[in-house]
Amino acid sequence: MRGLLRRFFARFAMAACLLGLSCDGGNPAQFTLVYGEIAHVEDCHLEMSNSAYDKDPPWIGLKYVCGSPESDLKGFPKDDPRWATHPTPPLGYTMAIHDCLLLNETFYCVESVKQGKASFKATFKQPRGRGPIITHIRP
Question: What is the pTM of this model?
């Protein structure tokens, strides 16, 4: 179990640094990404770019931004002045079942991938300050 937590932390530590853990707001227990729609979770905007629900394991492609306007999901040219205030472009990932994404203090893990949608569940917490590095969220 300790190795699993260490791998989770290592995999998402870079994303946490890039985001500066700046996502805050509500903390839903779960959410669903639907192709063609933008989900709003923890002051972050997420969009599914593609999915392979018929593969083994099934996976999705997504991009997201946190702490910036939803319009930044589309990105912007390198000469755009927004690079000075929003140095991080939309982050893109491919995620399979049970992969997790850190938004604010919560790891949201992929529970299911179906045609055109993917379900995420809040599974682990990475609290700020003192205490355990990562704790499991019990139902």
Answer: 0.69
